[in-house]
Amino acid sequence: MNREPKSVEGLNNTSYFYYYDKLMKMIYTIFKFDNIPPYWCMPYFKEKLFNRGVLAVVDTSAGVLPLECSYDGINVWGMPVYFNINNVVLGNLRGKIGEDGELIYFSVVENTYKSMVQLVDRYASLLANIDGSLNTTLINSRIAQVFEASSNSQLKVMEKVYDQISNGKPAVFIRKNGEEPFEHAIFNNVKNTYIGNDLIITKQSIFNEFKSEIGINNSNTQKKERLITSEVENNKEELNSNIYEWYYNLNDCISKVNAMFNLNISVSFNEDVVNVKGDIKEVNANV
Hints:
Elements: H1 14-28, E1 31-34, H2 42-52, E2 54-60, E3 63-68, E4 70-72, E5 82-87, E6 91-96, E7 101-105, E8 108-109, E9 112-113, H3 117-140, E10 145-147, H4 152-166, E11 185-187, H5 190-193, H6 196-214, H7 229-261, E12 266-269, H8 280-285
Antiparallel strand pairs: 1-12, 2-3, 2-7, 4-5, 5-6, 8-9, 10-11
């Protein structure tokens, strides 16, 4: 399952981690959680929920808390039976799901609670590769000449001349020392090899595709003189394809948490960033 070719490094670089953090924070804005107990740490809650995919809400000596957990056991539906918590302050906690605590998750695939890591990893890697290509084309656009030298001494003189020109000297003077004339320079057409504008457009398209997957408003269409209504509506349907499932699962989980611990937490779409289709009350009624 290694990345091929192995010489192509799309991960573990500064750009990748920059985009991973940026994209994950976009996901944090999709939902609003209201009536959260004041002692809950929301950055922890969102980071563990979306990066790990699941949290256990349990009654501890410090109060009812949402904590990072693992799970084991299996029931008739193939779902886990027990949760396990290893907290540096509270120690090890183990309980039965539905009796000693409840789980909060947003997606289940093949009886496994899925995190956002796979989705964010894909797009962060693509964006990091775009940055790498953009850096390369910017560097290449600065190189317009290739010099031919007939000796090592000429080569060293040419290297020094090029360094001085690159550093902004308005005039550079050289002495030939009786050697053969300098060979000609090959002038490259850097405009033909510059693809920076195309890369920036591609980068924006990747951002818009990611936003469409997580339901954030965007213009994920190529600019046209006439954009018909049906094309806009198709984009709205694509925006809603994932977030409703996530919403249903979160709403169901939080309802169980409220019932077990006498809380009044609610979850809703953040309509400042999410393009919700239809009345949110109708969505609530279907849960």
